[in-house]
Amino acid sequence: MLALQGIPKNINEPLLGKISFFSTEKDNRSETIIVDPKLSKRKLKSYVASIFSCIDIDDQLKTSGIPIVYNVNNIHLLSEGDVVEILPNGLINVFYQINSKHNLIFVTSRCNSNCIMCPQLIDNNEGNLLDLNLKLISLIDKSTEELALTGGEPTVIGHDLFHLILACKHYLPNTSLLLLTNARKFSDLKYTHLFSSLGHPNITIAITLYGDNNIEHDFIAGSKDAFNEMVRGILNLATFGNSIEIRIVIHKYTYKGLLRISEYIYRNMVFVKHIAFMGLETTWRAKANLELLWVEPKEIINSLEESIRYLAQRGMNLSIYNIPLCLLPKNLWKFARQSISGWKNSFDSKCLTCSVKNQCSGMFESGVPVYSQYLQPI
Ligand code: SF4
Fold first, then answer.
1. Which CATH number does 103-321 carry?
2. How confident is the model over 356-376, as pLDDT tens digits?
């Protein structure tokens, strides 16, 4: 997540608001964080907070009791309509970027699995983020095309997840949702029935699958019964007509079995709407386990090509995420997508001379040092 830092004054609790560079109507001020305002103290009092790029501000403003952050670095990275959280220590977390196509609701840091390549810091003691996320959803711009619900594992918050989906349906009726999940909770038929009854008009459930059998999948998921629960979950979701995407993360424990996994999906889950083969995001546990997980990019190509050919010949809808074009043979380029969220997306200095940079996914920022040696500008 993009984050800025400044010097806080009069902020005793986290504040959430929508960024505006202009003074707003009175009714909207209680949800607006105004940037570099030139307003009287009386008017500033009606805003959630004010943030300033200047290195210092008037002493009277500092002692006014008005929530303020000044000396904010990189304030130019904010846009009108972004939604940010300001913490008492002056950290400004940008939860929503109006100009990004990759926005998300971070549902929870908790998880019921323990995947060896998890790129997320898992905190099973985390408090409830429901109220924060409901407020965030109410502030997101209505023209947003897509929003991901992610974690951790979003379903561990149980029925609270339904409140989030209903809030999206209410405040963002034209926004498609992508729920990233291990699908284990959907093995509970009653839960899946209730989930499916929410009637969201455009939600896809994106499920990570690591093998065509319980031994391989459970090993990678770090959790017994993960495979069987996931399969039951997928079948339950399909029974109620949900739109399902399967995601396969490629690393040392999966790359040799990609064709087997593809055959398994085609034979047992031909109803899925989309299948994505994904490169590793090398943060947190994936970074800690990188020696175990890493496989030379050229080693995966045969297996990936075979799998894509097998599924494409059978009319399945396919994508490749998070793998730079120069590491793929040209016949796979049509499947490669620019899939990495803007704030994590990066390119190596070598890419400056590359003729296909504008079409390339580039890399996760964390992956640049890992991939750099393999890149070959085109
Ligand atoms: S050199 Fe850089 S921009 Fe070009 S294909 Fe490779 S990763 Fe993409």
1. 3.20.20.70
2. 999 999 999 988 999 999 999
